[in-house]
Design goal:
With 210 residues, the protein is of the alpha/beta class. It has 2 domains: 1-103, Formyl transferase, N-terminal domain (Rossmann fold), CATH 3.40.50; 109-210, Formyl transferase, N-terminal domain (Rossmann fold, 3-Layer(aba) Sandwich). Helices cover 35% and strands 23% of the residues. The protein is built from 6 helices and 9 strands. Strands 3-2-1-4-5-6-7 form a 7-stranded mixed β-sheet, covered by helices on one side. It has a two-stranded antiparallel sheet with strand order 8-9. A hairpin with a 2-residue loop joins strand 8 (197-200) and strand 9. The longest helix has 24 residues, at 170-193. The mean pLDDT is 97. Bound molecules: 5-O-phosphono-beta-D-ribofuranosylamine (GRF). 5-O-phosphono-beta-D-ribofuranosylamine (GRF) is lined by residues 9, 11-16, 89-90, 110-112, 178, 181.
Length: 210
């Protein structure tokens, strides 16, 4: 049996779509898409899962007393679907320690900047691109990383660089970064499925193809 993947997404789900497209074209070595889950019942991401007959789940945070209870429920569903690896794709919640520990070194996230710069709490969506433009940085990009107990601090798997242009707006930069996100996220998950990612402290070694 292949690795069982869950994708958690809160928004439009274009990164989810990139993962689904790669999965459908057999890039994940016989892996199964076990679940698409969201904290937003209206998330476009859920429709993308449904369109491919993948099980979907919407959990409403308002129905839980706190983040720990919400994550416990999410973990129950992940266990029911025998999920091995969790991909966060525009998931707007910070995972609680219990979640991170249960899936230690088995959670991937995509961030729309070159970590460790422009990460951490409050650095999401347009805030990231605004901060990059304000800083005067000549390059931005995106990062796929393992999730640890910090925010955007886990071992980096892949990055792609995007130049910052003089006339850039946050929206224009976001759009060009997103193109690279869709390219490297499937690539990173493929490496994971091929068991070619070896974590050594903060560094991730990419092993040669067997
Ligand atoms: C992406 O920019 C991703 O890096 C960030 O949230 C955005 C999600 O976009 N974490 P989408 O829902 O995948 O279209």
């Amino acid at each position: 049996m292949g690795i069982r993947i869950a994708v958690l997404a809160s928004g439009a789900g274009t990164n989810l779509q990139a993962l689904l497209d790669a999965w459908r074209s057999q890039q994940f070595r016989g892996a199964d898409m076990a679940l698409v889950a969201s904290d937003k019942p209206q998330a476009g991401a859920l429709k993308r899962g449904t369109a491919l007959q993948i099980p979907t789940l919407a959990l409403d945070p308002a129905k839980f007393p706190n983040a720990a209870a919400f994550d416990q429920e999410m973990l129950v569903h992940l266990a029911e679907h025998n999920v091995d690896v969790v991909c966060l794709a525009g998931y707007m919640r910070i995972l609680t320690p219990a979640f991170v520990q249960t899936y230690a070194n088995r959670i991937l996230n995509i961030h729309p900047a070159l970590l460790p710069a422009f990460g951490g709490r409050g650095m999401y969506g347009h805030h990231v691109h605004e901060a990059v433009l304000k800083s005067g940085a000549r390059f931005s990009g995106c990062t796929v990383h393992f999730v640890d107990e910090g925010t955007d601090t886990g071992p980096i798997i892949l990055q792609a660089v995007v130049p910052v242009l003089d006339q850039d707006t946050p929206e224009a930069l976001a759009e060009r970064v997103l193109i690279e996100e869709h390219r490297i996220y499937p690539r990173a998950l493929a490496l994971y499925c091929e068991q070619r990612l070896q974590i050594a402290g903060k560094r991730v070694h990419i092993l040669e193809k067997a």
